[in-house]
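Lab notebook, design round three. We kept the backbone fixed and only want residue identities now. Task for the bench partner: fill in a sequence for the structure below.
Input structure tokens:
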């Protein structure tokens, strides 16, 4: 059984910030599937979406998880917000370790990602409608994948980190 901490959740839910803080407070190295994909492709996620499309990106996410399964243990793994949309990824996430779902309200996402240009799926008018739609589509998938769900809207990064460490056995 692999023993990574796996972070899932919507864009803006704090996976990267929380993951980096976990790295500081433990001896676990932080890795991020989006960063691995950008390094592998040699370009930004937004360019991958524009040049090659979302389906191509989702294939890379699946490949990345398989690679992590072959190579990675005792790390903190942060994932892209849409990783659960390929249901084949859910058992892979679970095999990697304990899966923590950082749950967040649509309003909080919009507040945090105001002016953000790095998320191709949220570009354009009426972010709230887009966020609500994507969350409705994904809600059950996040819950299926999660071993532990944390409602993060009113928690500090430190509080979230503490909950994760208390629940990571
Ligand atoms: C996506 C989330 C992003 C990134 C890509 C698609 C999504 O990651 O993988 O833009 O479908 O929710 P973050 O959750 O780190 O923003």
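Proposed sequence:
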């Amino acid at each position: 059984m692999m023993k990574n901490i796996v972070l899932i959740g919507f864009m803006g839910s704090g996976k990267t910030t929380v993951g980096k803080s976990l790295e500081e407070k433990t001896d676990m190295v932080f890795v991020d599937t989006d960063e691995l994909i950008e390094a592998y492709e040699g370009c930004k996620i937004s360019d991958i979406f524009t040049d090659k499309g979302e389906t191509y990106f989702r294939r890379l996410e699946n490949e990345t998880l398989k690679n992590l399964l072959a190579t990675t243990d005792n790390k903190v793994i942060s994932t892209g917000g849409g990783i659960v949309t390929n249901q084949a990824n859910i058992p892979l996430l679970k095999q990697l370790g304990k899966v923590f779902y950082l749950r967040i309200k649509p309003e909080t996402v919009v507040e945090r990602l105001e002016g953000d240009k790095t998320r191709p799926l949220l570009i354009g008018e009426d972010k709230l409608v887009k966020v609500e739609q994507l969350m409705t589509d994904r809600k059950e998938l996040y819950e299926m994948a999660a071993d532990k769900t944390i409602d993060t809207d009113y928690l500090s990064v430190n509080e979230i980190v503490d909950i994760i460490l208390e629940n990571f056995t």
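Keep this in mind before ordering anything: DSSP finds eight helices and five strands in the chain.
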